[in-house]
Write a structure and sequence with these properties.
about 35% strand; single chain; mainly beta; 17 strands; ten-stranded mixed β-sheet
Length: about 350
Protein backbone atom coordinates (compact mmCIF):
# COMPACT_ATOMS: atom_id res chain seq x y z
CA UNK A 1 0.00 0.00 0.00
CA UNK A 2 3.06 2.03 -0.07
CA UNK A 3 2.37 3.81 -3.32
CA UNK A 4 -1.13 4.78 -2.46
CA UNK A 5 -0.57 6.05 0.87
CA UNK A 6 -1.64 2.20 3.94
CA UNK A 7 0.14 4.78 5.46
CA UNK A 8 -1.80 3.47 2.55
CA UNK A 9 -0.36 -0.85 5.32
CA UNK A 10 3.18 -0.05 6.32
CA UNK A 11 3.55 5.85 4.33
CA UNK A 12 2.22 -1.11 3.39
CA UNK A 13 -1.11 -0.56 3.28
CA UNK A 14 0.46 0.54 0.64
CA UNK A 15 3.85 0.60 1.51
CA UNK A 16 0.09 -0.10 2.15
CA UNK A 17 2.09 -1.23 -0.76
CA UNK A 18 3.95 -0.59 -3.92
CA UNK A 19 0.97 -0.42 -6.11
CA UNK A 20 -1.23 -0.98 -3.17
CA UNK A 21 -1.79 1.45 -0.35
CA UNK A 22 0.94 2.77 1.90
CA UNK A 23 1.96 5.17 4.58
CA UNK A 24 3.67 8.45 4.64
CA UNK A 25 6.85 9.57 6.21
CA UNK A 26 6.23 8.94 9.85
CA UNK A 27 2.54 8.30 9.59
CA UNK A 28 1.11 4.86 9.22
CA UNK A 29 -1.70 3.99 7.38
CA UNK A 30 -1.50 -0.10 6.39
CA UNK A 31 -2.99 -0.13 5.13
CA UNK A 32 -2.51 0.07 7.50
CA UNK A 33 0.07 1.92 6.06
CA UNK A 34 4.01 2.04 5.74
CA UNK A 35 5.51 4.01 8.45
CA UNK A 36 4.16 1.31 10.67
CA UNK A 37 0.97 -0.14 11.89
CA UNK A 38 -1.83 1.16 13.97
CA UNK A 39 -1.90 1.38 17.68
CA UNK A 40 -4.26 2.27 20.46
CA UNK A 41 -5.78 5.68 21.04
CA UNK A 42 -3.81 6.55 24.14
CA UNK A 43 -1.27 9.33 24.03
CA UNK A 44 2.34 9.61 25.15
CA UNK A 45 4.66 12.42 26.00
CA UNK A 46 6.35 11.74 22.68
CA UNK A 47 3.33 12.97 20.81
CA UNK A 48 2.29 9.63 19.35
CA UNK A 49 0.32 6.69 20.55
CA UNK A 50 1.65 4.75 23.48
CA UNK A 51 0.47 2.42 26.14
CA UNK A 52 0.46 1.61 29.79
CA UNK A 53 1.55 -1.57 31.48
CA UNK A 54 -0.95 -4.37 31.52
CA UNK A 55 -2.26 -6.50 28.71
CA UNK A 56 -1.21 -6.57 25.12
CA UNK A 57 -2.46 -4.30 22.38
CA UNK A 58 -1.32 -2.73 19.15
CA UNK A 59 0.27 0.13 21.01
CA UNK A 60 3.88 0.27 22.05
CA UNK A 61 4.52 -1.60 25.25
CA UNK A 62 7.03 -1.64 28.04
CA UNK A 63 8.98 -4.36 29.64
CA UNK A 64 10.50 -7.56 28.42
CA UNK A 65 9.52 -11.15 28.64
CA UNK A 66 7.17 -13.07 26.44
CA UNK A 67 3.42 -12.78 26.48
CA UNK A 68 0.40 -13.26 24.28
CA UNK A 69 -2.94 -11.81 25.27
CA UNK A 70 -5.55 -9.33 24.15
CA UNK A 71 -7.25 -6.28 25.57
CA UNK A 72 -10.44 -4.41 24.82
CA UNK A 73 -9.35 -1.04 26.13
CA UNK A 74 -8.26 1.95 24.14
CA UNK A 75 -4.67 0.93 24.64
CA UNK A 76 -2.55 -1.25 26.86
CA UNK A 77 1.06 -2.23 27.06
CA UNK A 78 2.84 -5.21 25.66
CA UNK A 79 4.97 -7.37 27.89
CA UNK A 80 7.41 -8.27 25.18
CA UNK A 81 6.92 -10.71 22.38
CA UNK A 82 3.53 -12.02 21.42
CA UNK A 83 0.57 -11.36 19.24
CA UNK A 84 -1.55 -8.43 20.35
CA UNK A 85 -4.86 -6.79 19.69
CA UNK A 86 -7.01 -3.95 20.89
CA UNK A 87 -10.51 -2.78 20.20
CA UNK A 88 -9.60 0.83 20.76
CA UNK A 89 -9.30 3.32 17.97
CA UNK A 90 -6.03 3.35 16.07
CA UNK A 91 -3.49 5.94 15.29
CA UNK A 92 -1.58 4.91 12.20
CA UNK A 93 1.65 5.27 9.98
CA UNK A 94 2.64 4.00 6.62
CA UNK A 95 -0.94 3.95 5.81
CA UNK A 96 -1.84 1.80 3.74
CA UNK A 97 0.12 1.01 6.48
CA UNK A 98 2.07 0.53 7.44
CA UNK A 99 1.54 0.24 8.19
CA UNK A 100 0.86 -0.82 7.45
CA UNK A 101 -1.57 -1.77 10.24
CA UNK A 102 -1.13 0.45 8.94
CA UNK A 103 -0.98 2.25 12.43
CA UNK A 104 2.11 3.31 14.29
CA UNK A 105 3.96 3.34 17.54
CA UNK A 106 5.90 6.10 19.21
CA UNK A 107 8.03 6.50 22.28
CA UNK A 108 8.53 9.14 24.92
CA UNK A 109 12.23 9.18 24.08
CA UNK A 110 14.59 7.80 21.46
CA UNK A 111 12.60 6.91 18.38
CA UNK A 112 10.48 4.26 16.73
CA UNK A 113 10.62 1.31 14.40
CA UNK A 114 7.59 0.22 12.36
CA UNK A 115 7.88 -3.17 10.61
CA UNK A 116 5.07 -4.70 8.57
CA UNK A 117 4.51 -7.90 6.61
CA UNK A 118 1.69 -7.11 4.15
CA UNK A 119 -0.15 -9.35 1.75
CA UNK A 120 -2.83 -8.39 -0.76
CA UNK A 121 -5.19 -11.36 -0.79
CA UNK A 122 -7.47 -10.68 -3.75
CA UNK A 123 -7.51 -9.94 -7.45
CA UNK A 124 -8.77 -6.36 -7.20
CA UNK A 125 -7.07 -3.41 -8.89
CA UNK A 126 -5.51 -2.64 -5.52
CA UNK A 127 -3.61 -5.94 -5.72
CA UNK A 128 -2.65 -5.42 -9.34
CA UNK A 129 -5.03 -8.20 -10.40
CA UNK A 130 -3.18 -10.90 -8.45
CA UNK A 131 -1.96 -11.64 -4.95
CA UNK A 132 1.22 -9.87 -3.88
CA UNK A 133 3.19 -9.49 -0.66
CA UNK A 134 5.57 -6.94 0.79
CA UNK A 135 7.64 -6.16 3.84
CA UNK A 136 8.18 -2.57 4.87
CA UNK A 137 10.34 -1.23 7.69
CA UNK A 138 11.07 2.27 8.92
CA UNK A 139 13.27 3.46 11.80
CA UNK A 140 13.50 7.12 12.81
CA UNK A 141 14.22 9.39 15.74
CA UNK A 142 11.46 11.08 17.71
CA UNK A 143 7.74 10.28 17.71
CA UNK A 144 5.91 9.01 14.66
CA UNK A 145 3.18 11.07 12.97
CA UNK A 146 5.28 14.22 13.31
CA UNK A 147 3.52 17.18 11.75
CA UNK A 148 0.24 15.34 11.22
CA UNK A 149 -3.08 16.79 12.31
CA UNK A 150 -5.27 14.04 13.76
CA UNK A 151 -9.04 14.19 14.20
CA UNK A 152 -10.55 11.22 16.05
CA UNK A 153 -14.16 10.07 16.21
CA UNK A 154 -15.02 6.72 17.77
CA UNK A 155 -12.75 3.97 16.48
CA UNK A 156 -11.62 6.09 13.53
CA UNK A 157 -9.14 8.89 12.97
CA UNK A 158 -8.38 11.18 10.05
CA UNK A 159 -4.72 12.02 9.50
CA UNK A 160 -3.82 15.16 7.58
CA UNK A 161 -0.11 14.73 6.92
CA UNK A 162 0.35 16.44 3.55
CA UNK A 163 2.83 18.94 5.00
CA UNK A 164 4.43 16.60 7.53
CA UNK A 165 8.24 16.56 7.46
CA UNK A 166 10.01 13.42 6.35
CA UNK A 167 11.60 11.91 9.46
CA UNK A 168 15.34 11.37 9.47
CA UNK A 169 15.89 7.66 9.04
CA UNK A 170 18.31 5.76 11.24
CA UNK A 171 19.77 2.34 10.53
CA UNK A 172 19.07 -0.85 12.43
CA UNK A 173 21.72 -2.69 10.42
CA UNK A 174 20.64 -5.62 8.29
CA UNK A 175 17.20 -7.12 8.90
CA UNK A 176 16.53 -10.80 8.23
CA UNK A 177 13.01 -12.13 7.57
CA UNK A 178 12.01 -15.67 8.53
CA UNK A 179 8.85 -17.77 8.38
CA UNK A 180 6.33 -18.35 5.61
CA UNK A 181 8.11 -18.66 2.26
CA UNK A 182 11.24 -16.88 3.50
CA UNK A 183 12.91 -20.24 4.15
CA UNK A 184 16.35 -19.96 5.71
CA UNK A 185 15.94 -16.18 5.78
CA UNK A 186 15.89 -13.16 3.48
CA UNK A 187 18.40 -10.43 4.38
CA UNK A 188 17.49 -6.79 3.86
CA UNK A 189 20.05 -3.98 4.13
CA UNK A 190 18.75 -0.41 4.40
CA UNK A 191 17.69 1.24 1.15
CA UNK A 192 20.45 3.19 -0.61
CA UNK A 193 20.28 6.82 0.42
CA UNK A 194 17.75 6.12 3.17
CA UNK A 195 19.35 4.36 6.15
CA UNK A 196 16.07 3.94 8.03
CA UNK A 197 13.99 2.32 5.28
CA UNK A 198 13.69 -1.37 4.36
CA UNK A 199 11.53 -2.83 1.59
CA UNK A 200 10.87 -6.21 0.01
CA UNK A 201 8.18 -7.31 -2.42
CA UNK A 202 7.29 -10.41 -4.37
CA UNK A 203 4.46 -11.69 -6.54
CA UNK A 204 2.15 -14.18 -4.87
CA UNK A 205 1.75 -15.05 -1.23
CA UNK A 206 4.67 -15.17 1.19
CA UNK A 207 2.76 -16.35 4.29
CA UNK A 208 -0.43 -18.10 5.39
CA UNK A 209 -2.70 -17.50 8.37
CA UNK A 210 -1.27 -18.71 11.65
CA UNK A 211 2.33 -18.89 10.46
CA UNK A 212 4.90 -17.23 12.68
CA UNK A 213 6.80 -14.43 10.95
CA UNK A 214 10.10 -13.27 12.43
CA UNK A 215 12.47 -10.32 12.03
CA UNK A 216 15.98 -10.12 13.45
CA UNK A 217 18.49 -7.26 13.17
CA UNK A 218 22.25 -6.94 13.30
CA UNK A 219 21.91 -3.51 14.90
CA UNK A 220 23.09 -0.04 13.93
CA UNK A 221 22.13 3.28 15.46
CA UNK A 222 19.08 1.30 16.55
CA UNK A 223 20.64 -1.55 18.58
CA UNK A 224 19.99 -5.18 17.75
CA UNK A 225 16.72 -6.23 19.37
CA UNK A 226 17.64 -6.88 22.99
CA UNK A 227 15.19 -9.74 23.52
CA UNK A 228 16.02 -11.56 20.31
CA UNK A 229 14.10 -11.75 17.03
CA UNK A 230 10.62 -10.18 16.92
CA UNK A 231 7.75 -12.54 16.10
CA UNK A 232 4.15 -12.07 14.99
CA UNK A 233 1.48 -14.58 14.02
CA UNK A 234 0.03 -14.00 10.55
CA UNK A 235 -3.69 -13.07 10.61
CA UNK A 236 -6.53 -14.76 8.78
CA UNK A 237 -8.17 -13.32 5.68
CA UNK A 238 -11.29 -11.26 6.39
CA UNK A 239 -14.08 -10.61 3.88
CA UNK A 240 -15.78 -7.21 3.75
CA UNK A 241 -19.53 -7.69 3.27
CA UNK A 242 -20.54 -4.03 3.60
CA UNK A 243 -20.01 -1.71 1.88
CA UNK A 244 -19.94 -3.67 -1.37
CA UNK A 245 -18.04 -2.68 -4.47
CA UNK A 246 -19.77 -2.34 -7.84
CA UNK A 247 -17.49 -3.02 -10.77
CA UNK A 248 -14.54 -2.90 -8.40
CA UNK A 249 -15.47 0.59 -7.13
CA UNK A 250 -16.74 1.50 -3.66
CA UNK A 251 -19.18 4.41 -3.74
CA UNK A 252 -19.06 6.08 -0.34
CA UNK A 253 -21.52 8.73 0.88
CA UNK A 254 -19.55 11.08 3.13
CA UNK A 255 -22.50 12.99 4.59
CA UNK A 256 -23.67 10.02 6.69
CA UNK A 257 -22.11 7.37 8.89
CA UNK A 258 -20.88 4.32 6.99
CA UNK A 259 -21.88 0.89 8.32
CA UNK A 260 -19.07 -1.63 7.91
CA UNK A 261 -19.48 -5.40 8.25
CA UNK A 262 -17.12 -8.32 7.70
CA UNK A 263 -16.70 -12.05 8.20
CA UNK A 264 -13.66 -14.14 9.09
CA UNK A 265 -12.49 -12.12 12.09
CA UNK A 266 -10.23 -14.17 14.37
CA UNK A 267 -8.81 -13.10 17.75
CA UNK A 268 -6.47 -11.53 18.64
CA UNK A 269 -6.40 -9.58 15.38
CA UNK A 270 -7.84 -6.17 14.59
CA UNK A 271 -9.96 -5.33 11.58
CA UNK A 272 -8.81 -2.17 9.85
CA UNK A 273 -10.53 -0.02 7.25
CA UNK A 274 -8.54 2.76 5.65
CA UNK A 275 -9.44 5.31 3.02
CA UNK A 276 -7.46 7.82 1.00
CA UNK A 277 -8.38 10.49 -1.49
CA UNK A 278 -6.37 12.25 -4.17
CA UNK A 279 -6.74 15.96 -3.44
CA UNK A 280 -4.71 16.03 -0.22
CA UNK A 281 -2.12 13.53 -1.43
CA UNK A 282 -1.26 10.05 -0.19
CA UNK A 283 -0.23 11.37 3.21
CA UNK A 284 -3.78 12.18 4.30
CA UNK A 285 -6.19 9.37 5.07
CA UNK A 286 -8.64 7.92 7.58
CA UNK A 287 -8.01 4.75 9.55
CA UNK A 288 -10.44 2.72 11.65
CA UNK A 289 -9.58 -0.23 13.87
CA UNK A 290 -11.90 -2.69 15.62
CA UNK A 291 -11.58 -6.00 17.42
CA UNK A 292 -11.75 -8.39 14.46
CA UNK A 293 -14.26 -10.66 16.22
CA UNK A 294 -16.91 -7.90 16.40
CA UNK A 295 -17.93 -8.36 12.78
CA UNK A 296 -19.15 -4.79 12.35
CA UNK A 297 -18.32 -1.17 13.00
CA UNK A 298 -19.17 2.37 11.96
CA UNK A 299 -17.10 4.98 10.15
CA UNK A 300 -18.46 8.36 11.36
CA UNK A 301 -19.47 11.00 8.82
CA UNK A 302 -17.17 13.36 10.73
CA UNK A 303 -14.23 11.34 9.41
CA UNK A 304 -15.59 10.60 5.94
CA UNK A 305 -16.46 14.20 5.11
CA UNK A 306 -12.75 15.01 4.89
CA UNK A 307 -12.67 13.05 1.59
CA UNK A 308 -15.88 14.46 0.07
CA UNK A 309 -15.61 14.95 -3.68
CA UNK A 310 -12.45 12.89 -4.03
CA UNK A 311 -11.59 9.58 -5.64
CA UNK A 312 -9.07 7.30 -4.04
CA UNK A 313 -8.95 3.91 -2.37
CA UNK A 314 -10.74 1.92 0.32
CA UNK A 315 -8.59 -0.71 1.99
CA UNK A 316 -9.57 -3.29 4.59
CA UNK A 317 -7.83 -6.18 6.28
CA UNK A 318 -7.04 -8.14 9.38
CA UNK A 319 -3.98 -7.10 11.39
CA UNK A 320 -1.90 -8.66 14.15
CA UNK A 321 0.77 -6.77 16.05
CA UNK A 322 3.67 -7.35 18.44
CA UNK A 323 5.28 -4.43 20.28
CA UNK A 324 8.50 -3.95 22.20
CA UNK A 325 10.06 -1.03 24.04
CA UNK A 326 13.77 -1.56 23.50
CA UNK A 327 16.62 0.80 24.47
CA UNK A 328 14.39 3.86 24.11
CA UNK A 329 12.86 2.73 20.81
CA UNK A 330 9.22 1.71 20.41
CA UNK A 331 9.35 -1.19 17.97
CA UNK A 332 6.17 -2.48 16.33
CA UNK A 333 6.00 -5.61 14.16
CA UNK A 334 2.73 -6.24 12.32
CA UNK A 335 1.28 -8.67 9.80
CA UNK A 336 -1.61 -7.69 7.55
CA UNK A 337 -3.82 -9.54 5.07
CA UNK A 338 -5.65 -6.86 3.08
CA UNK A 339 -7.82 -6.17 0.06
CA UNK A 340 -9.87 -3.28 -1.29
CA UNK A 341 -10.26 -1.16 -4.37
CA UNK A 342 -10.95 2.22 -5.88
CA UNK A 343 -13.33 4.46 -3.94
CA UNK A 344 -15.54 7.36 -4.98
CA UNK A 345 -16.23 9.65 -2.01
CA UNK A 346 -19.21 11.90 -2.69
Amino acid sequence: MKDVGFALVACAAAALLSGAVGGCGGATAPLVGDGGTGSSNSSSSGGGSSSSSGGVSSSSGSGGGISSSSSSGSGSGSGGFGSSSSSGSGSGSGGFGSSSGGSSSSSSGGGYGNLTFEQCTGTSSLCGGASMSEFYGQFAEGPSNQGCTVETSGACSYYACANAPTPAGISAGTLTLYGGSFGTGVSLPPEAGNPGQYTYSTAGASFSEGQVLTVSSTGGIVPAFAFGPLMVSAPYVATLTSPAATGGVYTITTSADLAVAWTGGVAPAQMIVEGTGTDAGANSYFLCQWDATLGSGTVPAQVLTQLAGQTGFLVYGQLTTTNLQDDGYAISLAALQYNGGTADYH
